[in-house]
Write a structure and sequence with these properties.
By secondary structure, this protein is α+β, with helices and mostly antiparallel strands. It contains 3 helices and 4 strands; from the N terminus they run βαββαβα.
């Protein structure tokens, strides 16, 4: 029986440059992290992306992926943050 999705929210914010989505999605694919939903906008040259991913089959634990993505963000000039879906929901409840 397959496990339920281990959902994580990933946000990417910064000055728009070529290849942001490609670099983030390449990392996710290499680590067997499945993108379930994605939304991205560019407003006056600023890039904003929110992804919901399933980390159920990830080759690395959540903490390592979160640190790796933060480092990747520094390399490409954006801020990348990861948060488990249940924590995100509790923090953003009205």
């Amino acid at each position: 029986m397959e496990k339920a999705a281990d959902k994580t929210i990933i946000t990417v914010v910064g000055k728009d440059t070529v290849g942001i989505i490609a670099r983030v999605c390449t990392y996710l694919a290499e680590n067997r992290i499945n993108v379930l939903d994605i939304s991205q906008t560019i407003v006056q040259g600023y890039f904003n992306m929110m992804m919901i991913v399933d980390m159920n089959a990830s080759v690395q634990p959540f903490g390592d992926c979160s640190k790796d993505l933060e480092r990747l963000g520094e390399e490409i000039g954006v801020s990348i943050k990861c948060q488990r879906e249940e924590i995100f929901r509790k923090m953003h409840r009205i």
